[in-house]
């Protein structure tokens, strides 16, 4: 990606030097826990969407570490800031065209564990968006996990992750997330999972919308970038994740969508750049 000359966002909150100890998000036992752990290894949103409740904050404390940060990690932090700035420019314009105002989210960089308005969360939850404080949370170690564990490395694959979480912020601002959460609360487990899938696929599509407009406005993509992003979307589909974990697939337990679905919706956003084409909640949509 060509981001060297692009501006950096002022909305990055760097908590990498802060170590949190104590209890983290509480999860019950059983198959639901196993599936949550599988889902937590990749893109997520508000952790309570899957936990069904808030996080425990008992006995939690924070300590500031003075350890020097590796140069590569600082480079990644700078990259995150550049991508976030690009999403800000894109969504400001898209909201303006719709007669709305885009309120920029904050992005929190953390190490191992973090406190959010949605509770305490460990890095294993993966990148997530908390609607209560309108912040994105990312442990940069997740990008290494993508490359080493899922063979989905590269700068545009990382940008896709950030843009996906920003997509959840867009859903929050548009009221989509609130309606989805209300619908999940009225639904049984299988239907609630399907609603979660629709949210995730729409965030994938919104990530593609960002890439489409950022490329048209700033020519930021290089050869192979789109393929890199599509590979990442495919690598973290529920079906592929479940096969890695247990060798079999349980479609009713999907919370993010299959590899084919994620690729399809990300591609839809990239090719059309049309937010209206991202309505994953239409009954006829895959």
Question: Would you mind describing this structure in some detail?
Answer:
- The protein is an alpha/beta fold and 286 residues long.
- The chain has one domain.
- A 4-stranded mixed β-sheet has the order 1-4-8-7. Strands 2-3 form a two-stranded antiparallel ribbon. A two-stranded antiparallel ribbon has the order 5-6.
- α3 crosses α5 and α5 crosses α7.
- The chain is globular and about 50 Å long.
- It starts with 11 loop residues before the first strand and ends in a 14-residue tail after the last helix.
Strand tally: 8
Q: Describe the main β-sheet briefly.
A: 4 strands, mixed
Uncertain runs = 23-43, 45-59
Q: How many helical elements?
A: 10
Strand order of the largest sheet: 1-4-8-7
The percent of residues in helical segments reads: 40-55%
Mean pLDDT: 81
Give the terminus-to-terminus CA distance: 30 Å
Structural shape: globular
Structural class: alpha/beta
Count of individual domains: 1
Strand content: 5-15%
Radius of gyration: 18 Å
Helix and strand string, N-terminal first?
EEHHEHEEEEEHHHHHHH
């Amino acid at each position: 990606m060509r981001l060297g000359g692009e501006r950096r966002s002022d909305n990055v909150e760097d908590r990498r030097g802060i170590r949190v100890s104590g209890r983290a998000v509480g999860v019950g036992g059983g198959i639901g826990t196993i599936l949550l752990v599988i889902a937590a290894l990749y893109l997520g949103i508000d952790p309570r969407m899957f936990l069904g409740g808030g996080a425990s904050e008992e006995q939690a404390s924070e300590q500031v570490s003075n350890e020097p940060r590796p140069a590569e990690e600082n480079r990644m932090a700078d990259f995150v800031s550049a991508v976030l700035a690009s999403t800000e420019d894109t969504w400001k314009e898209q909201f303006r065209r719709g007669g709305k105002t885009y309120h920029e989210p904050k992005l929190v960089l953390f190490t191992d564990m973090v406190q959010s308005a949605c509770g305490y969360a460990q890095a294993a939850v993966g990148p997530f968006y908390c609607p209560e404080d309108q912040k994105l949370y990312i442990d940069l170690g997740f990008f290494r996990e993508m490359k080493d564990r899922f063979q989905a490395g590269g700068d545009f694959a990382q940008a896709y992750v950030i843009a996906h979480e920003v997509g959840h912020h867009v859903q929050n601002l548009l009221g989509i997330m609130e309606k989805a959460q209300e619908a999940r609360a009225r639904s049984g487990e299988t239907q609630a999972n399907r609603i979660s899938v629709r949210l995730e696929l729409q965030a994938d599509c919104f990530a593609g919308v960002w890439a489409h407009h950022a490329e048209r406005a700033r020519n930021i993509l290089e050869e192979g970038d789109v393929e890199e992003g599509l590979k990442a979307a495919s690598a973290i589909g529920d079906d592929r994740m479940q096969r890695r974990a247990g060798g079999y697939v349980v479609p009713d337990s999907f919370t993010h969508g299959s590899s084919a679905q994620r690729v399809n919706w990300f591609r839809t956003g990239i090719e059309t750049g049309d937010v209206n084409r991202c309505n994953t909640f239409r009954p006829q949509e895959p």
